[in-house]
Amino acid sequence: MRVQLNKQLSISKIVIGCMRMNDWKLSTMEIVQFIEWCVERGITTFDHADIYGGDHRNEELFGEALRMQPSLREKIQIVTKCDICVPNDKNPGIKTRFFNTDKQYILTQVNESLDKLRCDYVDLLLIHMFDLLIDPSELNETLQQLRNEGKVKYFGLSNHNPLEFDALQKYTDIQFVTNQFMLNPLGIENYLNGIMTHCLKAGISPMIWSPLAGGRIFKPDNPKEESMKNVLEDIRQELKLETVDEVVYKWIFRHSSNPAIVLRTGKKERIERAIRSASGEEMTREQWYKILIEAGYKLW
Ligand SMILES: NC(=O)c1ccc[n+]([C@@H]2O[C@H](COP(=O)([O-])OP(=O)(O)OC[C@H]3O[C@@H](n4cnc5c(N)ncnc54)[C@H](OP(=O)(O)O)[C@@H]3O)[C@@H](O)[C@H]2O)c1
């Protein structure tokens, strides 16, 4: 199952998020085998960011696997992100969190990501968060340069609201091919603020992160979350699914923008359930709205 982001670039509907890959404690060979296992199942897209992992090392872990098995590179799509600056041991000068979209900073980060990933190019670069100090004309110059140098094939945004997305798009003829943002039954703010609907207006498919609310779907810690778990469980039984994660994925996939989901798990049986949920019986409108209303959406 694929999501076509533009005429040339398609990503798998299930994307492997590499944010916690360091916690999986895999050897380089095991990462190679994991990527191969994913590719055999049609999961070809891997989501990174320059800041993922302890000491920001997750791109490097992935790159070591690509060095061991270079033939994998052409079989997969690599997504990475930049613009978040956080205090860390590598950059002792940074004392507080901020966003940076200055040309020199983005060019440096992309070069570092390519070094760590041991790649000549990434398929998709996302601006991680909206930088309130952004100079959109300068961003346009930066993206044009990265494209002309062949270092980045396509560009998108992440966590940008419709106004922010449209404001940046106005300054560049490079089409942003996606917006990556959070959505799950415990967090529907991106339905409330119009980001999901904006995907239809912009003609893009979103990449949804935190589909399982970081695991809170399974471990409710207040009555509201408990109540949502019960609704999901009822629908699981109606659809005869194995577990509620499949219900959540089907709920996300039901939107006409054809979303992809970005998983964080490295557990194969959980990934296989996500694959299954992308096909088979769809959720009914009534079931879909039941979840939305339980999540706090007021129809009128
Ligand atoms: N663009 C952005 O700003 C942004 C921000 C955050 C994340 N992301 C991306 O999105 C990815 C997804 O991260 P997320 O935290 O948002 O993911 P998530 O899928 O909502 O949550 C993952 C958590 O759910 C647990 N889980 C999964 N299936 C489960 C099951 N069947 N039973 C119990 N627990 C289960 C996982 O545990 P196990 O690991 O033990 O399976 C993991 O702790 C990240 O890797 C990253 O690539 C992007």
Give a verbal description of the structure.
This protein has 300 residues and is an alpha/beta fold. The chain has a domain at 2-182: NADP-dependent oxidoreductase domain (TIM Barrel), CATH 3.20.20.100. It is 40% helix and 17% strand. The strands form three sheets. Strands 3-4-5-8-9-10-11-12 form an eight-stranded parallel β-barrel, surrounded by four helices. The longest helix is centred in the last third of the chain and has 17 residues, at 223-239. It binds NADP nicotinamide-adenine-dinucleotide phosphate. NADP nicotinamide-adenine-dinucleotide phosphate is lined by residues 17-19, 47, 128, 158-159, 180, 209-215, 218, 243, 245, 262-265, 267, 270.
Summary keywords:
single chain, about 300 residues, alpha/beta, TIM Barrel, eight-stranded parallel beta barrel, two-stranded antiparallel sheet, 11 helices, 12 strands, binds NADP nicotinamide-adenine-dinucleotide phosphate, NADP_OxRdtase_dom, NAD(P)_OxRdtase_dom_sf
Mean of the pLDDT scores?
Answer: 96
Q: How does CATH name the architecture of one domain? A: Alpha-Beta Barrel
Instruction: Report the CATH C-level class of one domain.
Output: Alpha Beta
Give the helix proportion (percent range). 25-40%
Overall geometric form = globular
Task: List the ions, cofactors and other small molecules found in this model.
Answer: NADP nicotinamide-adenine-dinucleotide phosphate
**DSSP strand content:** 15-25%
Largest sheet: spatial strand order: 3-4-5-8-9-10-11-12
> Which structural class best describes the helix and strand composition?
alpha/beta
Kindly state the number of beta strands.
12
Distance between the termini: 35 Å
Superfamily (CATH H level) name of one domain: NADP-dependent oxidoreductase domain
Uncertain residue ranges: none
